[in-house]
Amino acid sequence: MEKILEVKNLKKHFEIKKEKGGAPQILKAVDGVSFDVYKGETLGIVGESGCGKSTLGKTILNLHRKSDGEVIYDGVDISSLSDKALKEYRKKMQMIFQDPFSSLNPRKKISYILTQPMRIHKMGKAAELDSEVDRLMTEVGLDVNYKKRYPHQFSGGQRQRIGIARAFSLQPEFIVCDEAVSALDVSVQAQILNLLMDLQAKYKFTYIFIAHDLAVVEHISDRIIVMYLGRIVEIARKEELISNRLHPYTKALFEAFPEMNPRNKREKKIVVGDVPSPINPPAGCHFHPRCPNVMDRCRVEYPELKEISPEHKAACWLY
């Protein structure tokens, strides 16, 4: 398969200044992440809140400037481009945001919101843009008669459809979906997921799909990355990850997921303790304070992300 994106040792650290002076603290939101994305696939990223998955998505698109590493898109390290040089790549790489209300300008009508990206990139005249709004709204399942309405006049699911239409307005190749359905009702989530999958089948988009809901990621993804405290602990094809989970944290995530069939009794192994602070992460493997399989080596040395079986990598001293 052809690579569309290579992420190499990407880091994003935030400086946290103390109120009463003193040396600032460093929050390691993304701390040395490497993976590839292939054309036409959906790569899911899961993990607990605060693991860095949303920051990773925004750093890939240069909404956050990297602290270190490379983001190579079609052979070009876009993470080091100037704002002017990056503008051309904005047409190819777009984002669907988590909150379908705050991501839309409440003072602007939907027709303005959908045409703004095209006007910025000078993609057509006024008459052409108006017909493009009709096409986009029809594509995402919205009535074209609503284009003169404001965001507050739509439901949450409709607003997210508007966000999707805006992301697709520039005809991108690559889209980061940052918790794109987490703020929606379950029935609406299914509609939005099916819409994204239908549009991908039609236009051959490539997705990174960020979520904390395993059922959602299983439904839409081809491969899945599991993150913990700013690092990747496991990556595999969806079917392989579901049937052969390797990392103790991945096992804990799936154990916490409710069983749909009440007749299928299974013992739940809930991981104790809270997620450590990314400002002061534990030495060695970051998961070792909560891991049921912890060894002495885990407390002092972080394991490398290694291929355990074909297309299945894990960062764990058990392997």
How would you describe the overall organization of this protein?
- It is a single chain.
- This protein has 319 residues and is of the alpha/beta class.
- The chain has 9 helices and 12 strands.
- It has an 8-stranded mixed β-sheet, with helices on both faces. A 4-stranded antiparallel β-sheet has the order 2-1-4-5.
- A hairpin with a 2-residue loop joins β9 (223-228) and β10.
- α3 (110-120) packs across α4 and α5 (156-168) runs parallel beside α6.
- The longest helix has 18 residues, at 186-203.
- The two termini are 27 Å apart.
- The mean pLDDT is 92.
Features:
single chain; 319 residues; alpha/beta; 8-stranded mixed beta sheet; 4-stranded antiparallel beta sheet; 29% helix
User: Class by helix and strand content?
Assistant: alpha/beta
**Alpha plus pi helix count:** 9
The general outline is: globular
Mean pLDDT: 92
Portion in beta strands: 15-25%
| Most strands sheet | 8 strands, mixed
Spatial strand sequence of the major β-sheet = 6-7-8-3-9-10-12-11
Fraction of residues in helix: 25-40%
Number of strands: 12
How much is the radius of gyration in Å? 21 Å
